[in-house]
Design brief:
Structural class: alpha+beta
Helix content: 40-55%
Number of helices: 13
Strand order of the largest sheet: 3-4-9-6-8-7
Shape: elongated
Number of strands: 12
Distance between the termini: 27 Å
Strand content: 15-25%
Number of domains: 2
């Protein structure tokens, strides 16, 4: 029966191969969708790894700084650094925005890093080229995914920055490349209001009789200074001493500083379990739909091939061939179609994955799972053809 299945495939090899290629492209899309999800999870984990932090201190009752907005006074790090078990505490800001250059615009996560030197929390870990930021203003390190090169000049809000270093796989949880600039510049870009907004705000406050008291003009000045200040950060990244227990240190911070503190496990749960959960469910729906469509294609082509050889199947029954032999032939054809399709799909996914705008991570586990799923799907899809073949009457072999 193996020879019979092979001969039948060779007899209609054109239809069989072209169907396998079409099925393979569909399988390739399915593997790519799984790779997109894996890439999203990897982006979230890379973001946490690259921060080099053990704890994230953010505004109370928020999921910041990645999933929700979070604002803290920029002197909070001093109180955090005095908590027992803390080795280092660094301010950081994050702002997703369009960054323009002479070659166009790029959406990026602009990260403000404290002047604490390379190796500190928030700083880029590895450089492919160039050097780290060494000045307090107007220098930047960019991920190569941004398309920027050493020596490029980029525009962030009002100021221009010189690209002095390049990194790789320094991305946000949504896959946007990161650009690192000095903290003071980042605070200005994120929190400083425009001139028109400042003028309107001054006019609004000066018309408020509560603040504009002729007897105490310093009240108005103090309120204006407070409104126009940009002494905020989004989070404090904390590195712990070797013997410190993260959960205990986090609990001490919550108790004494009245701030929200997350350890690595909690922050990963926020990013993966909350931030990309909706996207994950959407990808799962696409995978289910693609699997159903693939199964329908396999069922249709195997059924068509089977119906095309009704008389041959009737002859086999007439000469005493067992039903299990006919079933084996049909299943072998379905499995052969699935193997051809999976090989084409795997090759296609590997070839086009690097051209996707988002990171596509193809892992061996998904490949093995996909192969098993495809073969199982082919076997199930062949049941329609098997049912039709078993209903063939041997008398059809000698019929008109």
């Amino acid at each position: 029966m193996i020879s019979l299945a092979g001969r039948d495939i060779l007899h209609a090899w054109g239809k069989f191969v072209f169907t396998g290629v079409g099925l393979g492209l569909l399988i390739g899309v399915t593997l790519t969708m799984a790779g997109v999800y894996r890439g999203m999870v990897d982006d979230a984990q890379v973001l946490l790894d690259n921060s080099a932090a053990d704890l994230w201190v953010v505004q109370k009752d928020t999921l910041g700084p990645y999933a929700e907005p979070s604002n803290l006074p920029d002197d909070t790090w001093r109180a955090v650094a005095n908590i027992p078990g803390v080795a280092n505490a660094s301010n950081v800001t994050y702002l997703t925005m369009q960054v323009s250059s002479a070659s166009g615009e790029t959406r990026a996560l602009v990260t403000g890093i404290a002047n604490s030197g390379p190796g500190s929390s928030g700083w880029p870990l590895r450089l492919l080229a160039g050097r780290q930021v060494s000045k307090n203003h107007y220098e930047a390190v960019a991920d190569i995914a941004s398309g920027f090169k050493l020596g490029d000049s980029i525009q962030i809000r009002r100021n221009r920055y010189l690209i002095v270093g390049l990194t790789k796989r320094m991305v946000s949880s949504s896959g946007d490349p990161m650009i690192f600039i000095p903290l003071l510049d980042a605070q200005q870009a994120q929190f400083l209001k425009s001139n028109d907004a400042i003028a309107q705000n001054r006019r609004r406050i000066s018309q408020n009789p509560i603040f504009n008291n002729p007897r105490n003009p310093e009240v108005l000045d103090a309120v204006l200074d407070l409104q126009e200040s940009n002494t905020q950060v989004n989070a404090v990244l904390v590195q712990l001493k070797a013997q410190a227990e993260p959960k205990q240190v986090a609990e001490d911070m919550r108790r004494w500083l009245r701030l929200q503190v997350y350890d690595r496990e909690q922050m990963e749960q926020i990013l993966v379990g909350k931030l990309i959960a909706t996207s994950a469910r959407q990808i799962l729906m696409f995978l289910v739909i693609l699997a159903v469509v693939s199964a329908a294609i396999v069922a249709f082509i195997i059924y068509t091939l089977t119906m095309g050889k009704i008389r041959e199947i009737a002859v086999l029954k007439l000469i005493g061939t067992h039903n299990k032999s006919i079933i084996s032939m049909i299943i072998q054809q379905a499995l052969a179609l699935g193997i051809i399709g999976f090989m084409v799909g795997k090759i296609a996914a590997t070839v086009w994955a690097p051209f996707f705008p988002k990171y596509v991570l193809l892992v061996t586990q998904d490949t093995i799972t996909g192969l098993i799923a495809v073969l199982g799907m082919c076997v199930l899809a062949s049941f329609v053809a098997i049912y039709a073949a078993l209903r063939v009457d041997p008398a059809d072999a000698v019929g008109g």
